[in-house]
């Protein structure tokens, strides 16, 4: 009964830590997750490199880029620490949505809030928010 309430990734970690061999299914799943995470990092890093020149003129240093699984966010920004964090599930979105999220997070280095000025600045860099929100419908983005 010990593993019933655990998430699938927690079960995999529990098996690995206990020294138990992974089942073929678990091994395949782990391989796919590793590949997907690597692909996500490569894709979002490239998007960050493409978006950054718009912000360099504001004397913003290229930030540290991090990744994690998040439940309710596509990304986050820590302006004082110069860190951007992105959700691994963002890779499931179309590229223009990924670029929007990257631009949104970079804009927080100029305005660390969601004020009117923040959205005015963001609109100078990317598509209007309304069209992006239609794409980010829960029916479009599949959660793993």
Could you walk me through the main structural features you see in this protein, from its secondary elements to its overall organization?
Residues 1-6 and 139-144 have low confidence and may be disordered. The chain has six helices and three strands, in the order H-H-H-E-E-E-H-H-H. A hairpin with a 4-residue loop joins strand 2 (75-78) and strand 3 (83-87). The protein has one domain (22-135): 2-Layer Sandwich (Zincin-like). The chain is 50% helix and 10% strand. A three-stranded mixed sheet has the order 1-3-2, with helices on one face. The chain has 144 residues and is mainly alpha-helical.
The average pLDDT score comes to 83
Number of strands: 3
Radius of gyration: 18 Å
Q: Tally the helices: what do you get? A: 6
Which word captures the global form?
elongated
Please give the order of strands in the largest beta sheet. Answer: 1-3-2
| Low-pLDDT regions | 1-6, 139-144
- What's the CATH H-level superfamily name? Metalloproteases ("zincins"), catalytic domain
Number of domains: 1
Q: Quick one: biggest sheet?
A: 3 strands, mixed
Write down the CATH class.
Answer: Alpha Beta
Tell me the structural class: mainly alpha
Could you please say which CATH topology applies here? Answer: Zincin-like
N-to-C SSE string, H for helix and E for strand = HHHEEEHHH
> Architecture, according to CATH?
2-Layer Sandwich
Strand percent estimate = 5-15%
Distance between the termini: 24 Å
Q: Helix share of residues?
A: 40-55%
